[in-house]
Amino acid sequence: MGDFHQNGIITTLHNLTDRPIDDLEAELTRFSRVRPMSLVLPSLYSELQGPALDRIVTELAQVPYLQEVVIGLDRADRDQYRHALEFFNRLPQKHRVLWNDGPRLRAIDEKLRAQGLAPTEMGKGRNVWYCLGYVLARGNSESVALHDCDILTYDRSMLARLIYPVANPSFNYEFCKGYYARVAEDKMNGRVTRLLVTPLLRALKKILGPLDYLEFLDSFRYPLAGEFSFRIDVVNDIRIPSDWGLEIGVLSEMKRNYATNRLCQVDIADRYDHKHQDLSKHDDSGGLSKMSIDISKAIFRKLATNGVVFSSETFRSIKATYYRIALDFIETYHNDAVINGLEFDVHSEEESVELFAENVLNAGLHFLDYPMEKPFIPSWNRVSSAIPDIFEQLQEAVEADHREFLGEA
Asked: What is the mean pLDDT of residues 164-193?
């Protein structure tokens, strides 16, 4: 059961009453008449073969208020794309699957790349960006929600609570971030948020002072949550990273573009579990190791755009301060786990902190070596300015794929 405490500078919408899903959906159905809603699902093909996505689609099939569902499909060949069309065809809502590896969307990507407008690397950020472009091309939605496809504990109340703040016409929120407790199977999860982001923000505040941007990020209860929603006018101007800095990058864009009273976070689940990344202690090109580097770089870049000047000595101080604060947090989390009867492996937690401390420094030094690195994908507003018919091209490519494999209009 949530509390009603408001911390930081972002409005928090709690789950105080476990309101029945039928009540929420009845309201959202009324809202949908004046504010049509869409859902974006960025997915790897491999997720169609796991237990989470099957459950998600079964739940979504019962949702009455969605105008459309847009699925971004990565790492799929022709047969796998055909299977994905069949897999999602049980959705009663209007829906389309973007075959990101197909020749038509690849051709669009090459056209954008020739003008320096394409995402620079594969990943969730690229997938989300093309899905949002398709939503803009369709022009049928006023509110858009996005969530991951690996949520093992999914039920449709998550979506209802996530999209409600930007769907209710009497609310003035442009953006909403979902949050939840990362507890599952008697363990406390969410290592990157608990052991990297929170102590790193506290370390930066200690060294740099109480900057607005740091206070902003520290106001979010789960800043790395992959679940968020926004009104459609946000989509045109947002620039998102193509790497693991996606969630931090989206929050940074919201801070740049909107007053904080237009942003909120909402409690969407009592429990949440999804697939877990390996720590990847000896390989910083994948797993939580790469994630920690990309997230740290995203924060450092944003601070630099706000006028913060970094040096190698600064980053060494940040590493040392972060390390001490993170170790103190381990004791806090241990005690929290004990009082709740949860398992807690102090050794593995300290191993994570040691790796993250090294990666905080490595991310900082990388930033100094490559200060002009451009991790952000251009906004769709810029793309449509350079290629005025890009939305028509994107929509036609998706429809042509659909017609070819299903033979339907």
From this structure: 92
The CA angle 281-282-287, to the nearest 5 degrees, is: 55
Give me Rg for the CA atoms of the chain. Answer: 21
Judged against a pLDDT cut of 90, whether residue 208 lies above it is answered with yes
What is the pTM (predicted TM-score) of this model? 0.92
Q: Is the pLDDT of residue 409 over 50?
A: no
- Rounded to whole angstroms, the Cα distance separating 167 from 63 reads 15
Strand partners, 274: 151
Pair 43, 74: CB distance under 8 Å: yes
Rounded Cα distance between 380 and 239, Å, is: 8
pLDDT at 408 > cutoff 60: no
98: tokens are: 């973007």
CA-based nearest residue to 189, from 269, 273, 289, 247: 273
Give the pLDDT confidence score for residue 259 in this predicted structure. Answer: 95
Contacts of 164 (CB under 8 A, 6+ apart): 24, 27, 28, 266
* Residue 136 near residue 234 (C-beta atoms within 8 A): no
Contact 274, 52 (CB under 8 A): yes
Distance CA 326, CA 53 (A): 34
Report whether 243 contacts 118 (CB < 8 A). Answer: no
For residues 70 and 73, give the distance between their C-alpha atoms in angstroms, rounded to a whole number. Answer: 10
The dihedral sign for the CA sequence 281, 284, 290, 295: positive
